[in-house]
Design goal:
Elements: H1 2-5, E1 11-13, H2 15-21, E2 24-29, H3 39-52, E3 61-65, H4 69-81, E4 84-90, H5 95-103, E5 107-111, H6 123-133, E6 137-139, H7 147-162, E7 170-173, H8 179-191, E8 196-202, H9 207-213, H10 240-245, E9 251-255, H11 257-269, H12 276-294, E10 301-306, H13 320-325, E11 348-349
Parallel strand pairs: 2-10, 3-4, 3-6, 4-5, 7-8, 7-10, 8-9
Antiparallel strand pairs: 1-2, 9-11
Helix pairs in contact: 3-4, 3-7, 4-5, 7-8, 11-12
């Protein structure tokens, strides 16, 4: 059942945005997957990989550390395939996501978000430790296993290009595990080499700095989330998935929480109800499209990932009380002409393939 339902999501033209700016931004509606996010693809590919390798046996325990959506996807798929599921996550994850995972049968452990990835209390360390101490358990390792990236190289990327018969000028996307952008970039590099691939980095993340200079420089603490209020994106280390596709990412730019939150409400008013990471992707795609337009591309066509739906954030960005507590009152009232704080987003070109030369494949 899952293999039939996951993927083949529509590529939506974001009409109000496009009309205002004279560009064509297209959103891959991954929130229409059965688990509600792009992570359904990665979760299915990870389970397929560990089943095929013989490491995951009937009735076994699947363990994963996640910002939320991979946990929902794995909980759903484990229920369909007859596995138990353990999920660890940072304490910044929305209550809706935690409740959904538990409703789907997963055991959920909430971990501190203020510790670095090397700390045993970090959510990825906890998933690894539980798997190691439980007979018959598998750590699916979405950060390190390239089955994550392959789901997008063989599925998401081809679907996007097939929906753009006139060609695609750009693709812009944020990174968490790095699997989505790496997989799509790897496919497009071979099938549409003129398409510019651009990382969209949220505030507090260090990946844009890494692409530009080969070093991580970021606001905030070691775990890489810094002061961003978005979930599941932004990182302060080089994952195996991003390293595998990173050489195909030509540039990077930044998008802020405020820009993403404004875009959330603008998209919702146009009938596209998504979460803040999806809205941040749209902001990044818009910035790339405007840059291409200034460079002489007439009505540039740029695609991005609408990674999950807005219902998972009703207690956060879509809550007036939550917004007011964080000084965000009024973000729901702007128009498309007010959405961008910085049209360039600190755009930088990738320094070169040498920034990936020393990576040995670990997460």
């Amino acid at each position: 059942m899952s293999a039939v339902l996951i993927g083949n999501t529509p590529l939506l033209p974001l009409s109000a945005l496009n009309k205002h700016f004279g560009v064509t931004v297209l959103g891959k509606a991954e929130y229409l997957n059965p688990g509600g996010s792009v992570k359904d693809r990665a979760a299915a590919s990870l389970l397929d990989h560990y089943e095929a390798s013989g490491q995951l046996l009937p009735g076994g325990l699947v363990c994963e550390g996640t910002g939320g959506n991979t946990g929902i996807a794995l909980a759903m798929l484990c229920g369909w395939r007859g596995y138990k599921c353990y999920v660890s996550m940072p304490d910044t994850v929305s209550s809706e996501k935690i409740s959904t995972m538990r409703a789907l049968g997963a055991t959920v452990e909430v971990c501190p978000s203020t510790v670095g990835v090397s700390d045993p209390a970090h959510y990825t360390s906890r998933a690894r430790a539980v798997a190691a101490s439980t007979p018959g358990a598998v750590h699916t390792d979405q950060f390190g296993s390239l089955a994550n990236m392959r789901a997008h190289e063989t599925g998401t990327g081809p679907e996007i290009l097939a929906a753009c018969p006139g060609g695609l000028d750009g693709f812009a996307c944020a990174a968490g595990t790095g699997g989505t952008i790496a997989g799509v970039a790897s496919f497009l590099a071979a099938a549409s080499p003129s398409t510019q691939i651009c990382l969209v980095d949220p505030q507090g993340s260090g990946l844009k700095s890494y692409l530009a200079s080969g070093t991580f420089s970021k606001a905030g603490h070691e775990c890489g989330k810094g002061d961003t209020l978005t979930e599941g994106i932004g990182i302060g280390r080089l994952t195996a998935n991003f390293a595998a596709g990173g050489p195909h990412v030509r540039a990077a730019l930044s998008a802020s929480d405020l820009e993403a939150f404004r875009a959330c409400f603008l998209l919702a008013r146009g009938g596209v109800f998504v979460g803040p990471s999806a809205a941040l992707n749209v902001v990044g795609a818009l910035k790339l499209a405007l840059r291409l337009k200034r460079g002489g591309v007439d009505n540039p066509k740029v695609a991005t990932i609408l990674c999950d739906g807005g219902a998972s954030y009703l207690s956060k960005i879509y809550s007036a009380e939550w917004r007011e507590e964080r000084g965000l009152a009024g973000v729901e009232q702007c128009g498309w002409g007010d959405v961008l704080e910085d049209e360039e987003g600190g755009y930088v070109e990738r320094a070169g393939d040498a920034v990936f030369a020393g990576h040995e494949g670990g997460s």
